[in-house]
């Protein structure tokens, strides 16, 4: 038997008769819940790519999952859940980004004007050097308007095709291609400019906390040459920071190789979201078995 949804997608078609029985609806809800649980690690990983922040990723992935559960009857029978979840999450990310809009956000018209100027150019070595540093790349990405940043990350970092992006954002293929082109141009210009406030700050002697908050990235060789020089200059004269630095180095050496962040964090976040979803659905939380989430 197949449940036929009403044209609005809000519930069963009245013409479906006994096909929409409570037993069948309960079974369909259980099947949807299992499919949703299976998608959670991938959904969290996508949220991490788009937000670059684990707390924000968890919040938005959870909201996407809860919305999907509450609107599950809108997904037609047999339709894949993945693309539908993607659409919900991507739009949540864009909405959240617009609320937290960066004051240094680049203007599309300004970038277009620059790139139309035959005399405009950048230093490619500087752009690539900054793109290789996580803090510099993320600082440049947040300067892109949300709709353009999302397209660039989905295409160039996550590997989505332009048609898939257009479908997720509910925009035409030409519009998706235009956002990708403009987004890439804005990212190059942002990396070429760097952050003037950061450069001015690094020209001043560092205080202890300023140096200490860069230590982790310094250990991972993920700071700019300017930041590296400022941290090393502080360590050379400070009596209290070098012991902390030496302890961090020793601790990291003892820990050895750890699992990649993308394989650990999404699983843990996915389990927390799954537990909340199951509480919402009145079921016991799932447990992870052999790296996967097992249903009860």
Q: In which range does the helix fraction lie?
A: 55-70%
Strand order of the largest sheet: 1-2
- Rg from alpha-carbon coordinates: 24 Å
Major β-sheet profile: 2 strands, antiparallel
Q: Which structural category fits the helices and strands?
A: mainly alpha
- Looking at the structure, what is the overall shape? flat
Q: What is the CATH homology-level superfamily of the largest domain?
A: RNA polymerase sigma factor, region 2, helix turn helix motif
* First-last Cα distance: 25 Å
Total of domains:
3
The CATH topology of the largest domain is what?
Answer: Rna Polymerase Sigma Factor, Chain: A
CATH architecture of the largest domain: Orthogonal Bundle
The number of E-state strands comes to 2
| Beta-strand content | under 5%
- Figure out the total of helices: 14
One letter per element, helices H and strands E, the order comes to: HHHHHHHHHHHHHHEE
CATH class of the largest domain: Mainly Alpha
Poorly predicted segments: 1-20
Structure, described:
- The chain has 296 residues and is mainly alpha-helical.
- It has 3 domains: 14-100 and 261-294, RNA polymerase sigma factor, region 2, helix turn helix motif (Rna Polymerase Sigma Factor, Chain: A, Orthogonal Bundle); 108-194, Arc Repressor Mutant, subunit A (Orthogonal Bundle), CATH 1.10.10; 199-255, no CATH class.
- Helix content is 68%, strand content 2%.
- A two-stranded antiparallel sheet has the order 1-2.
- Helix 1 packs across helix 3 and helix 5 (124-131) packs across helix 9 (173-193).
- It is flat.
- Residues 1-20 have low confidence and may be disordered.
């Amino acid at each position: 038997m197949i449940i036929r949804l009403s044209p609005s997608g809000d519930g069963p078609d009245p013409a479906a008769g006994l096909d929409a029985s409570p037993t069948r609806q309960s079974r369909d809800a259980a099947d949807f819940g299992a499919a949703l649980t299976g998608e959670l690690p991938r959904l969290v990983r996508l949220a991490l790519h788009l937000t670059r922040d684990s707390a924000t990723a968890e919040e938005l992935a959870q909201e996407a999952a809860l919305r999907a559960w509450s609107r599950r009857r809108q997904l037609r029978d047999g339709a894949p859940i993945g693309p539908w979840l993607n659409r919900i999450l991507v739009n949540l990310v864009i909405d959240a980004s617009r609320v937290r809009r960066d004051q240094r956000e680049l203007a599309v018209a300004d970038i277009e004007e620059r790139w139309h100027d035959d005399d405009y150019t950048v230093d490619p070595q500087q752009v690539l050097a900054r793109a290789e540093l996580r803090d510099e790349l993320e600082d440049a990405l947040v300067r892109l308007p949300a709709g353009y940043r999302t397209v660039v990350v989905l295409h160039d970092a996550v590997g989505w095709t332009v048609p898939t992006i257009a479908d997720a954002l509910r925009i035409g293929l030409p519009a998706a291609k235009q956002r990708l082109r403009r987004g890439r141009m804005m990212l190059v210009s942002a990396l070429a400019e760097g952050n003037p406030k950061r450069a001015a700050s690094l020209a001043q002697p560092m205080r202890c906390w300023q140096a200490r908050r860069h230590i982790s990235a310094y250990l991972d060789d993920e700071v700019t040459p300017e930041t590296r020089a400022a941290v090393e200059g502080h360590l050379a004269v400070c009596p209290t920071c070098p012991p902390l630095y030496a302890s961090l180095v020793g601790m990291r050496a003892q820990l050895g190789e750890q699992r990649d962040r993308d394989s650990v964090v999404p699983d843990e976040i996915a389990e927390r979201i799954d537990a909340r979803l199951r509480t919402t659905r009145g079921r016991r939380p799932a447990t992870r078995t052999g790296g996967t989430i097992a249903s009860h």
